[in-house]
Amino acid sequence: MRKKYFPFLAVIGLLLGLFSIPASAADICTVISFDDKTAESKCYSVPDDANGIESLQSMGVLLSLTPQSSFGRMVCKIDNKGTDVQGSVCGFDGKFWNFNLKRGASWGHMPVGFDGGNECWNRDFNFADFSKIVHYCAKDGDVIGMAFGKEGEVPDMLRVKEIKVTVDNELENETFAEGGVIDQDVEPGSEVSLRLVLENLYEDDTNAAINDIIVRANLEDIDQGDSIRLRFDEFTLGPGAKEAVEIDFTIPTVVEAKGYDLSIKISAKDDLGFVYDKNIPMVIDVQKESHKMKIPAAKLDKTAYTCEENALLDVQVVNIGAKPLVGEVSIDSGPLELSAKAPFSLSNDALESTSRFEKQFTIALPQELNPDSYQITIRADAKTTAATEIAKLIKQACTEQAKLQISEQKPAVRQAKGPAGNSASSGEQSSQPPAADQQPQNKANASQGNSAMAFLFAALGISLLMLGGAAFAVWKLKMAGKR
Fold it and tell me: Model pTM?
């Protein structure tokens, strides 16, 4: 009996084995981008050549479809988001579900439907043979992208969630996720801060990180024709992660009142192979009041003083208003017994030096000034506006070591020697060459010395000649006597 039934059982086992071999599968990922900038994503397996509807249903989302036709079905809603079915088509309000497929490092819009016809699309993105009704068929490694929006909409998984702007610590009411004009009281010298929040919309089921994210910000031509450029260190966002980037600008005080282009550029790439290159255009509108000025600089020459007799204070006043200003700047400090003033006249041409006043004040430090911190008030006053700034002078103890350090800091002075080898008076100490008006006198003295020497030599020569002549006369007389 066993031998009789064995061939039959073997055939049945073989047939069961053949039918139990699984059909070839395709590993695909699908990302769905909704109108409210949220998204869903998942990577999963489908039978090879599964059509578009089957591929979406395998993801587990709820689909609202039109009835079957020769051109296939249309997707009207995904998870109750989209438009209603109206007869054999989807209701249209300018937006619909765009059917995309990963093409290289970006998205390509598929020129075919989800499940119409009996043939698979040949994956030619320029396909336009409408005599054939073909549909999408899944292949291993595919990434499907469903995006609800206008024609050409594609999923964007690196979301700029928000851009919040503060000007001089005052928060703007508007959020600039897609750019815009910043015009809330931006003036010369304002501190502008943009808080940019980026979000990875991939879910954990996709497990796709977005890597090498680089943010750049360029404020064009605002600094007397030069641009302010910022670049931030690259970073990575895991699935569902968010990151805030703080972009801070100080508007120059020397600036014209007009709008300046601010471009925020973001580049990145993700684990599914997509490359991101975003540009968020913005404008910073710099405005000016009729009369206003600013003291951008009030700086002492040292951070602290010990035994010095004087301190130097550099003061700058800038007209940041729309009209000229005339007034005076004053510096005052009771403990330092300081009170000084200087007049100014400022034009309203921001790019000309005439719109700025600069002066260095010398502050005499009292000899008995105690170690402490002393406040110096700098004030600029004009008829219709004023500006105030505070500088702090720090006085430390005048120790012997401090005295030594100050003496070592003084430049070396060479002492000139007097005729007797003694040092000349302090007024004569100098390492410099004689002044130009002293040089003719020195030359005259040298000339007089040379004339005296010549006279001495001439007198000596005459004396020698006379002595020689006398000696010759005596010798001649002696010779005559002998004869």
Answer: 0.71
